[in-house]
Amino acid sequence: MKFYEFFSKRKIFIPVVIIIIAMLATVGAWQYRIYLDKKYAGMDFERDFEEFEDLDEIAEEEEPDSLEGGISIVEEEPSVETEEPGDDVTEVNISEPSQPKLSETKTEEKAITAVKMQEPKIETMLAPVFGTISLDFSDTELIYSKTLDMWTTHEGIDIKAEEGAQVRAVMDGVISEITNDPQWGMTIAIDHGGGVTTIYSNLSTLDMVTLGQQVKKGDVISGVGRTAIVEIAEEPHLHFEIMKDGKNLDPKIYLPKQSLKR
């Protein structure tokens, strides 16, 4: 009877006790699982670290003795072997060419002839700017100048284009002159070798290239401007000249017809 009364008074606490026991068991199992994970992780790390050290020892044993002092890279200067009739093969250092002997004069002349640059083919030019020819080339017949109000020769062609339109090098070359001419305005000259020079006048800027700069065919060197006093009455255009050995040539002969309107 007393036993029954004891449990009847405490029947509310029994579920609570059971829940508490279950929670404690769950927390204990979770903590044990964390402990096992840490333990196995440490074991794996030690095992991997030992394998890594073993690999280092094997690599050190297999490394050749010649590399103990570090790797050194020695760059040898290129040399060119030349052979002359009746002589042994000798090495000639191309970085510091020696003074040729009299017996080597013919060989040197042959080498110079072999590397002689070909004259530029001016028929391969491209148009310096896309536009319309507004004033033609004339070195013998006189043509009328609106600005000067007189008849005069014209040693180039004027290609009408929008102000600021890109002006390009017609061939590979070197910038040989950059000037703000009092008559032709901002002017750039390009030396293409072989006595061929192209001149671009009435430009908008001289800041895009420098004297002695190498330029490629099609490189933009400036823009179309209105800086030529002798042609200020004309619409914006590029004044373009071609010179061969100091003589002006008709640019229309060498520029592609499809790129210019006539």
> Which structural class best describes the helix and strand composition?
alpha+beta
Can you tell me the CATH architecture of the largest domain?
Distorted Sandwich
Approximate strand percentage: 25-35%
In total, the number of strands is 15
Contiguous runs where pLDDT drops below 50 for at least 5 residues: 63-76, 78-118
Number of helices: 3
**Integer count of domains:** 2
The fold-level CATH name of the largest domain is Glucose Permease (Domain IIA)
CATH superfamily of the largest domain: Glucose Permease (Domain IIA)
Estimated helix fraction: 25-40%
Q: Gyration radius, to the nearest Å?
A: 44 Å
- Biggest sheet, in brief? 9 strands, mixed
Q: What distance lies between the first and last C-alpha atoms, to the nearest angstrom? A: 129 Å
Describe this structure in words.
This protein is of the alpha+beta class. The strands form four sheets. Strands 3, 6, 8, 9, 10, 11, 13, 14 and 15 form a nine-stranded mixed beta sheet that branches. 18% of the residues are buried. The protein has two domains: 66 residues; 140 residues, Glucose Permease (Domain IIA) (Distorted Sandwich). Helix content is 26%, strand content 29%. A hairpin with a 4-residue loop joins strand 4 and strand 5. About 21% of the residues have low confidence.
